[in-house]
Amino acid sequence: MALDHAILVSLLEKPGSGYELARRFERSIGYFWTATHQQIYRVLKRMEQDGWIDVREVPQQGRPDKKEYSVAERGRDALSAWLQEPIEPESVRHDLAVKIRGAAFDDPAGLISEVERHREAHTGRLAHYLAGEARDFGEPPEDDTLDAERELQHVVLRGGIAYERMMIAWLDDVLATLDRFRAGP
């Protein structure tokens, strides 16, 4: 996936400034597609030149005017074309898994603190996802109409929650396995 498509999706959900877009990446979409502020601004500039987004100056009191970006028709067409293209299932590239296998040739118990650090990070991310789910999806909509944007955002979040739970369970298994190699008293 190109950063362009992630930006288009985010701007279709809600137009905003480059700063606001970068914050959204940090808060939600960034858990599935990461980008630095610099990358986002560079792609926004290119997308503007390509006619994929529209930019409007928004006056601000006591501060420089800000640019608000929204998706232009060419951007919608580009996203639509990309949505129709098949993509290959992702391969997992996991440095920690290679380290765990490699530990057989060193001190397996020496990896315990690293695995614990990863478990802590996944536990934190799971807590963040669950808090976001409670905040954004805790209450059903007031009417019974199907809201595709809301439902699709939620199903992606549920995938992130399931992934983090799976990673924590796997890391617990790894820790139990590594613990058997600790030097005894």
From TrEMBL:
TM helices/strands, residue ranges: none
Segment forming the signal sequence: none
Domain Transcription regulator PadR C-terminal: start-end pairs: 92-179
Domain Transcription regulator PadR N-terminal: 7-80
Listed name of the protein: PadR family transcriptional regulator
Lineage: Bacteria, Bacillati, Actinomycetota, Actinomycetes, Kitasatosporales
